[in-house]
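re: ur question from yesterday

yeah so i grabbed the chain u mentioned. its 199 aa long if i counted rite. heres the sequnce exactly as i have it in my notes:
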Amino acid sequence: MQEFKNMPLTRDIARELARKYSTMTYDELDVLESLLVPIKYGKGEKILQEGEVCRNISYIEKGLVRQFYFKNGKEVTEHLGVDHSIFMCIESLFKEEPTRLQVEALEPTLVYALPKAKLEAAAMRNVNIQMLYRKILEESLIQSQIHADLVRFESAPNRYKRLCDLSPQVVLRAPLTYIANYLQMTPETLSRIRSGVLL
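ran it thru and got these structure tokens back, copy pasting raw so excuse formatting
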């Protein structure tokens, strides 16, 4: 994949995660770096299939992913993740049960996986890695709550406006149909809202 010929060093990703979620010594960065597994996905490639067990917390270094499930034969988009963000199927990850969710790359995507079992083992021995683990989980839960509140309490135009504020790159890069689905509105409604927003 041409897009990733200048892949960042795993050390740089460890530093990026440490800056975002915790403070770390050189030794702790060594441990974190040793846990990270770089994985490249092509556009349209499945990262996780329904029925698989989610075993990783994944950090998107570059790319765009969609987490979705099927309800009454229709796809429901639950999450759209972009550069420098985390995704996971939290129920499958912690219960170690097959997921009903699927994750696909909407662009060529470079992910750094943190295997949960290895991360937990490292967290047992190291307070700063424990802190990083906790902060990642907190962020994931807060994101889920924000999305739930968005679709429960906000009008359609406000949902779109909030998404523009929270995730401008998602709005610019994700296909309109998935954005509409994520915001629980029809593509036609979203088109009308976008026209209004752009006027």
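noticed a couple things. The chain has two domains: 8-135, 153-198. also The two ends are 38 Å apart (CA to CA).
anyway ttyl
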